[in-house]
Amino acid sequence: MKNFVAVLVIVAVVLGFSSVFVVKEGQRAIVVQFGKVLRDADTGEATVYAPGLHFKLPFIEDVKRLDARFKTLDGNPDRFVTSEKKDLIVDTYVKWRISDFATYYLSTNGGNQAQAEALLTRRVSSGLRAEFGSRTIKEIVSGERDNLMREALIRGADSAQELGIEVIDVRVMQINLPTEVSQSIFQRMRAERQAVAMEHRSEGREQAEFIRADVDARVTVMLADAERESRQLRGQGDAEAAGIYASAYNKDSEFFSFIRSLQAYEKSFEAGNDVLVLEPDSDFFKYLNKATAN
């Protein structure tokens, strides 16, 4: 009897725990019975349980908890083609949440978020592709980005309804050209800058040649003027010196001759070992002969 009572207590406890479930804050729950979502008998809509304590039929009904918070889908940058058939690498993100929990559960293989995001990515990308394909690069980067995101949001929201998802926002974070196109543009820009640099260098060399030629001409003229003035000054100095010598010679020619002879003697015997072969009575020894005679 005691064993039977114990078994009954255990069964009651198990049934009690199996009949109660808790939904946490930020979650919503739906109940699945025999593989079907439990729905309201009057409205036919799925019964969604808010955060709190709830009851269900034990072992028959299964509770599926789903995240009801806002989520961000930030995938890898994707390639889009503009109306000019130009490729762009676009980085986007999507804000979304579950709007129809039963539809979401059934369309995503039991509420698999990874599958839901993969399906949502395809739908949003399809809308973005249509919007990028109807615009040029200039329109996209100049003033059409807000309009593009707004239209992409509308397209994404419409297509995501069948997944039970509400698309809150679609944002284009960054738009880049493909690597090969960017390199081609950079090379073309570099070639253009190099051509401009070469043109500036050529103009600079030409101006340098003009300046150098002008300076050389001025230097040549200045040197010629200086040489001319120096020759004139040298001539004037020589003339003045000759005049002074002539005046001095005229005042005392004998003394002048004597001085010149002494200078000649000094120059001739400056080395100390010079040999002169001259007649003793030559004019060179005139003053020496006079000194000897005296």
UniProtKB/TrEMBL annotation:
Single biological process term from Gene Ontology: proteolysis
Domain Band: from-to ranges: 18-189
Membrane topology: Single-pass membrane protein
Pfam families membership: Band_7
Location in the cell: Membrane
Gene Ontology cellular component list: membrane
Gene Ontology molecular function, alphabetical: peptidase activity
InterPro entries listed in its UniProt record: Band_7, Band_7/SPFH_dom_sf, HflC
Main location: membrane
Keyword Signal found: no
Keywords: Hydrolase, Membrane, Protease, Transmembrane, Transmembrane helix
Function text: HflC and HflK could regulate a protease.
Family, per entry: Belongs to the band 7/mec-2 family. HflC subfamily.
Name of the protein: Protein HflC
The organism of origin for this protein: Pseudidiomarina marina
